[in-house]
């Protein structure tokens, strides 16, 4: 007789991380209070438990941080590249040493499953520092001229979906090229950046080279507008990215933006079907779909629509939603009440506009912010859920008949960050990849990242690349 | 993709797309109460070498990297406490305790039979294994050793492991095993014929063996996945075997370098899942060779659970072809019961 | 050779979609030399001319960006050949436009033709210089290659009416973009004559579109246009550049800010070639040849 194979709870231990009741701003190598003493709370989205209180930086604090970074720039940029490299190698190693602690911390503060922080975020964070560490003393060979110069002070604003990984994407190339940084983590996920400050301390990084200012959008706005900042790097929403671009108009500040997306995941009738199903799942349900490059639009060839949807739904019923610290959890919590409200509103709009809604049968915990993996069929290009970035576990399913139509629909968006192609026909992959207007294209795979691989968008998904040799350019005076 | 060959019969309601095209072609299978020998024709698929080839080559491709990544991801499931206790007992109950050596003797087989019936002499709550698996000449000994226990006797046949013999010899091998009381026959396919593209020959051989098994013996079809080499071949072989009447599809003989892996087993689990979805016929899966630790076995059970589903979590539908695995399962079981790590002196040497 | 012969004057026109329309506005403005003497009437382009030019540039983008790099190189080299044939005309126009002696103007024209040749040679090399394989840590083939950004609005430099113009235009089209050029406001004639060269080369219509008129008037709708992907502000002053950059943020155009250029004849770097390139990175699984799989 068949019986259910119920996985017993397998929680990762929380004891590995020690969260202080409060954290200050990390400026010039010291933790300090905000000028006006204001703080805000950061909560665990899976339980709504308050994890800590964090200082809210004012303009005066941002000013202090930029001044500290400016002062540190003189010596940091003058260091031989090989010395900067060794600091970054140290950081990479300490991240590896403390990776379990940081994974648990990130899961607590962000709500994403421990298996993702453990197997994706943290290994990529360490790898990113390793990669750029090696560049620090080889910049003259990077193709940006014989002696490329750093820009100065980089003001960096990062999102909450991959807090520590986005920090690594920003800080590693900035430091390798000789810049100093003031980084603002997202309001809802400040803790891993503050732990990173401690890693800088352990690595002996000179004071002021990395400064962390916590706060909300106002802190970020103060940072990007600060006249002492030479370079602004932002990852986040397209709306905010546009606002930053306006703010920087007429200045000499260099700008790179990594913004939203509405990635098309195109499945042809000759796709490796089981792997395609996995790719669709990881494309839109990895990190609860809170991924700028998510494959949020499934474009499926009409001739296999029903078959693929059957398989996809069956697969979604095996997803395990719940305690993010449980090692068997596939789907964690939505990062904030605000984000949950946005996802909910857009999903409701999808329904109101006539698309057919289906959610995986799963019980949502009573506390915290949760949204069941959901897909919409019968979606057309005109539906809001086919055009607006939802940034949540919601997949819009559209159909196409021919490769031309697939490409036309995939490109029919102001965004241009990512796309997926599923077919066993090599020439079709190359032809379609060639026509897609997107910065990252995954063929027969999805949501793969690597420090050597440039990442960034076309059109309203932003400009500039992070990762690889290309990622150096954002921080060099070229 | 294959062109649709209209055959006048409509497929099961609601099923369309990739698999439905061929489902329509052997829709007659759906009406069969059990997976009876393929003497019952599926003429449009198996009518000729070319139709069979077109069918098998029309199956969706397998992306190796994606398949292995999925198998690896499922391998990270953490099976603890009550789930582990359940899974260990389930795994024990799924073991085809195997000895396939030139040096096998009646004494060795009797010892194996006794162990299969009562794996842990110190703990009667430990379940029996599913079967013992021996060469045909040892079937009578094995039957006697497990008599009255419910443990099955499986016999390899068809010139195991190479399969390089005439069909007549192979069938004689099978008939002898069945006549001696084998409950299950583990045949090997002709990999040479498969790799040469002679799918119909492989099909007909399996069908003939199935017929020789009669209604009493269940047929496990061994593909020797390590020799088929590619995942596309493994998927094709799986469908070929199922079309020809396999009750189980089995990875390996245990006699080559690469035997059961999570990836090839996952692929075969997808095949049986899809086959049942299209035909209503459930086929079992047996990874064999190289699974030595309880930890590995539990990973395979996760694959079963999350791919084919709970219906396959039963020794009637999933087996481990193994020998040393059983002792590790028993040691882990003892650890779970006592809280102490066990040692090899506390389980029986086969 | 008679002094008494009355010369035939040229009516300068816009260049849009491979055709030579008059301005939709029906208006012209007086172009003079540095001394203030009348040279010609140039079309005073309107917002609608800008709009039409963008439509033409967008229409041409697919074909031009999809052409082989070798083909683009051949076509652009052909332009240099045509320029060489019209060398005397351009020397005359540049001398008039910029108040240069004939010999200095000739040097500028020579440098301009050479500049065009330099960029023509880049079409099939830039991808190898800025693209390449990325050694990712996994069973994937990972390749980054540059692709043109799309439709680029180019505000040509105000002072250097020909060398400056070609120095900002050639890199845009060499990499497969299509361009809407706003010629030097005071000295548009070399640009409008360049259009005649382009039209008689093999450059497909719409790849380069040239407008003359008030830079600020034409640039504003271009900077705000949602179907323009990038803008080179070389010909804008500080105040205009800020205004245009602000407008360009609405659809996140790639913006090249104006920078003081002392000497347009200095060998350019890659900056303008790469400014309007996107990097596309494609991942593809590789995997092992056999299904050997993992070790157990």
TrEMBL record, chain A:
Question: Single GO molecular-function term?
Answer: oxidoreductase activity, acting on the aldehyde or oxo group of donors, NAD or NADP as acceptor
Q: Which SUPFAM superfamilies match?
A: ALDH-like
| PROSITE patterns reported for this sequence | ALDEHYDE_DEHYDR_CYS
User: Domain named Aldehyde dehydrogenase: which ranges?
Assistant: 32-477
Gene3D superfamilies, sorted: Aldehyde Dehydrogenase, Chain A, domain 1, Aldehyde Dehydrogenase, Chain A, domain 2
Q: Tell me yes or no: is Membrane among this UniProt entry's keywords.
A: no
Query: Sorted alphabetically, which keywords does the UniProt record give?
Result: Oxidoreductase
Q: What Pfam families does the record point to?
A: Aldedh
- Family as reported in the entry's similarity comment: Belongs to the aldehyde dehydrogenase family.
The protein, known as:
Aldehyde dehydrogenase
Native organism is: Streptomyces fumanus
UniProtKB/TrEMBL annotation, chain C:
**Top-level taxon of the source organism:** Bacteria
Keywords associated with the record: Oxidoreductase
What GO annotations for molecular function exist for this entry? Answer: oxidoreductase activity
Q: What Pfam families does the record point to?
A: Aldedh
- Residue limits of the Aldehyde dehydrogenase domain? 25-256
The record, for PANTHER family, names: ALDEHYDE DEHYDROGENASE-RELATED
This protein is called Aldehyde dehydrogenase
């Amino acid at each position: 007789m068949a019986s259910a194979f119920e996985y017993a709870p397998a929680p990762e231990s929380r004891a590995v991380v020690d969260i202080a009741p409060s954290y200050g701003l990390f400026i010039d190598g010291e933790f300090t209070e905000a000028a006006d003493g204001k703080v805000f709370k950061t909560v665990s989205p899976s339980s709504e438990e308050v994890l800590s209180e964090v200082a809210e930086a004012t303009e005066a604090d941002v000013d202090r941080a930029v001044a500290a970074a400016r002062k540190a720039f003189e010596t940091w940029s003058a260091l031989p590249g090989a010395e900067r490299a060794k600091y970054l190698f140290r950081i990479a190693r300490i991240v590896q040493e403390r990776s379990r602690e940081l994974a648990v911390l990130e899961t607590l503060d962000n709500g994403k499953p421990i298996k993702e922080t453990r197997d994706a975020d943290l290994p990529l964070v360490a790898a990113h520092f390793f990669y750029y560490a090696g560049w620090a003393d080889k910049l003259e060979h990077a193709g940006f001229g014989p002696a490329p110069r750093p820009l100065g002070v980089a003001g960096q604003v990062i999102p909450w979906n991959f807090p520590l990984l986005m920090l690594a994407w920003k800080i590693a190339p900035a430091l390798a090229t000789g810049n100093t940084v003031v980084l603002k983590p997202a309001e809802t996920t400040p803790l891993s950046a503050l732990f990173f400050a401690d890693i800088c301390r352990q690595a002996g990084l000179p004071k002021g080279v990395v400064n962390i200012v916590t706060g909300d959008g106002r802190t970020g706005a103060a940072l990007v507008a600060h006249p002492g900042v030479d370079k602004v790097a932002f990852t986040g929403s397209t709306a905010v990215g546009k606002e930053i671009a306006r703010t920087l108009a007429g200045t000499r500040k260099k700008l790179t933006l990594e913004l939203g997306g509405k990635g098309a995941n195109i499945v042809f009738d000759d796709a490796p079907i089981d792997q395609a199903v996995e790719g669709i799942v990881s494309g839109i349900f990895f990190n609860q779909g809170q991924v700028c490059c998510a494959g949020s639009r499934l474009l499926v060839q009409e001739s296999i629509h029903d078959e693929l949807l059957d398989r996809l739904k069956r697969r979604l019923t095996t997803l395990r939603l719940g305690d993010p610290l449980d090692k068997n959890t596939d789907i964690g919590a939505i990062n904030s009440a605000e984000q949950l409200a946005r996802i909910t509103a857009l999903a409701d709009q999808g329904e109101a506009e006539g698309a057919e809604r289906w959610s995986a049968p799963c019980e949502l915990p009573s506390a915290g912010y949760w949204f069941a993996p959901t897909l919409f069929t019968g979606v057309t290009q005109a539906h809001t859920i086919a055009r607006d970035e939802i940034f949540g576990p919601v997949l819009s399913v559209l159909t196409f008949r021919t490769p031309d139509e697939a490409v036309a629909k995939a490109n029919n968006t102001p965004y241009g960050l990512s796309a997926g192609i599923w077919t066993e026909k090599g020439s079709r992959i190359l032809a379609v990849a060639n026509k897609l207007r997107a910065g990252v294209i995954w063929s027969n795979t999805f949501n793969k990242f690597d420090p050597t691989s440039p990442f960034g968008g076309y059109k309203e998904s932003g400009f500039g690349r992070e990762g690889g040799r290309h990622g150096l350019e954002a921080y060099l005076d070229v | 993709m294959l062109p649709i060959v209209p055959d006048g019969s409509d497929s099961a309601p609601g099923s369309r797309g990739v698999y439905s095209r061929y489902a329509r072609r052997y829709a007659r299978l759906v009406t069969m109460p059990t997976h009876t020998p393929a003497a019952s024709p599926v003429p449009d698929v198996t009518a000729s070498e070319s139709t069979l080839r077109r069918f098998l080559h029309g199956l969706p491709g397998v992306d190796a990297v994606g398949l292995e990544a999925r198998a690896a991801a499922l391998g990270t499931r953490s099976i603890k406490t009550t789930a582990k206790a359940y899974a260990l007992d389930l795994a024990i109950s799924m073991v085809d305790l195997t000895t396939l050596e030139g040096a096998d003797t009646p004494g060795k087989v009797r010892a194996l039979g006794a162990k299969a019936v009562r794996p842990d002499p110190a703990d009667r709550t430990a379940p029996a294994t599913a079967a013992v698996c021996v060469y045909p000449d040892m079937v009578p000994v094995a039957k006697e050793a497990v008599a009255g226990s419910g443990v099955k006797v499986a016999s390899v046949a068809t010139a195991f492991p190479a399969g390089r013999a005439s069909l007549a010899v192979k069938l004689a091998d099978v008939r002898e095993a069945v006549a001696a009381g084998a409950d299950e026959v583990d045949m090997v396919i002709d990999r040479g014929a498969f790799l040469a593209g002679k799918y119909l020959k492989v099909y007909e051989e399996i069908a003939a063996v199935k017929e020789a098994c009669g209604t009493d013996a269940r047929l496990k079809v061994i593909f020797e996945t390590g020799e088929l080499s590619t995942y596309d071949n493994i998927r094709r072989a799986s469908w070929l075997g199922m079309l020809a009447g396999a009750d189980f599809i089995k990875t390996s003989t245990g006699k080559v370098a690469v035997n059961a892996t999570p990836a090839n087993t996952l692929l075969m689990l997808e095949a049986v899942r899809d086959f049942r979805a299209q035909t209503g016929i459930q086929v079992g899966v047996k990874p064999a060779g190289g699974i030595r630790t309880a930890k590995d076995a539990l990973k395979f059970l996760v694959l079963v659970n999350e791919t084919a589903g709970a219906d396959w979590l039963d020794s009637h539908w999933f087996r481990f072809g193994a020998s040393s695995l059983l002792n590790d399962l028993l040691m882990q079981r003892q650890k779970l019961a006592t809280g102490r790590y066990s040692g090899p002196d506390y389980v029986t040497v086969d | 050779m008679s002094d008494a012969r009355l010369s035939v004057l040229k009516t300068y026109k816009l260049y849009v979609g491979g055709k030579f329309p008059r301005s939709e506005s029906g208006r012209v403005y007086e172009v003079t030399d540095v001394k203030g003497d009348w040279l010609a009437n140039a079309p005073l382009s309107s917002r609608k001319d800008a709009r039409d030019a963008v439509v033409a540039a967008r229409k041409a983008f697919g074909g031009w960006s999809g052409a082989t790099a070798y083909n683009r190189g051949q076509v652009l080299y052909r332009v240099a050949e045509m320029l060489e044939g019209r060398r005397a005309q351009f020397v005359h126009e540049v001398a008039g436009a910029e108040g240069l002696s004939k010999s200095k103007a000739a040097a500028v024209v020579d440098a301009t033709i050479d500049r065009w040749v330099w960029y023509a040679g880049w079409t099939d090399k830039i991808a190898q210089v800025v693209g390449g394989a990325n050694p990712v840590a996994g069973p994937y083939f990972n390749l980054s290659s540059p692709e043109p950004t799309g439709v680029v609005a180019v505000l040509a430099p105000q002072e250097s009416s020909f060398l400056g113009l070609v120095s900002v235009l050639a890199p845009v089209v060499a990499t497969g973009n299509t361009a809407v050029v706003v010629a030097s406001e005071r000295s548009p004639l070399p640009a409008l004559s360049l259009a005649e060269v382009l039209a008689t080369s093999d450059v497909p219509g719409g790849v380069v579109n040239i407008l003359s008129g008030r830079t600020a008037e034409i640039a504003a709708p271009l900077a705000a246009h949602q179907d323009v992907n990038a803008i080179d502000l070389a010909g804008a002053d500080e105040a205009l550049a800020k205004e245009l950059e602000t407008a360009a943020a609405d659809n996140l155009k790639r913006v090249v800010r104006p920078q003081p250029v002392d000497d347009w004849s200095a060998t350019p770097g890659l900056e303008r070639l790469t400014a309007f390139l996107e990097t596309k990175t494609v991942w593809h699984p590789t995997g092992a040849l056999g299904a050997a799989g993992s070790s157990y």
